[in-house]
Amino acid sequence: MILLLSISIVIILISNIMMFLTFILSKKSFMDREKNSPFECGFDPKSSARIPFSLHFFLITVIFLIFDVEIALIFPMIYSFNLVNILTMMKISFFFLLMLLIGLYHEWNQNMLNWTN
Questions:
Q1: What does the alpha-carbon distance between residue 96 and residue 99 come to, in Å, rounded to a whole number?
Q2: Are 93 and 73 within 8 A, CB to CB?
Q3: pLDDT in tens, 7-56
Q4: What contacts 44, CB < 8 A, 6 or more positions away?
């Protein structure tokens, strides 16, 4: 009983020492105005808020959301393969891929897939 208590106290002390060391070693020593300020759609939060909005940042967000939602919708579709017949699954998959291709075409049409802008 005493041996178990002493082992647990030693484990707690070692874990606390390791957490304290990682806290000390992970401190950033270089504080920069750009790193400490929030990044909101390409705007500098310390300057004028009346500058025109960049459509490039908006469309990058749309690309992210399209593929993020795609992954969130693919997982339940995989599970439902056993629950519905093949014709219904093909219709659902075709509609899903059509929506993704329409989104991709819109991004391509707006020249947002060109990353040099």
A1: 5
A2: no
A3: 999 999 999 999 999 888 876 656 666 666 666 655 555 666 666 666 77
A4: 37
Bridge partners (DSSP) of residue 40 are 43
Q: Is the pTM of this model over 0.85?
A: no
Rounded Cα gap, residues 111 and 109, in angstroms: 5
Domain boundaries, the chain: 1-42+53-110
pLDDT in tens, 85-94: 888 888 888 9
Q: What residue type is assigned to position 70 of the chain? A: E
Helix ranges, 26-117 (H): 33-36, 55-79, 86-109
SS3 percent helix, strand, coil of the chain, rounded to 5, is 70, 0, 30
Helices (H) and strands (E) in the chain, counts: 4, 0
Report pLDDT for 97: 85
Residue at token pair 């995989």: 78
80-101: average pLDDT: 84
Amino acid at 79: Y
- What's the farthest any 2 CA atoms get from each other in the chain? 73
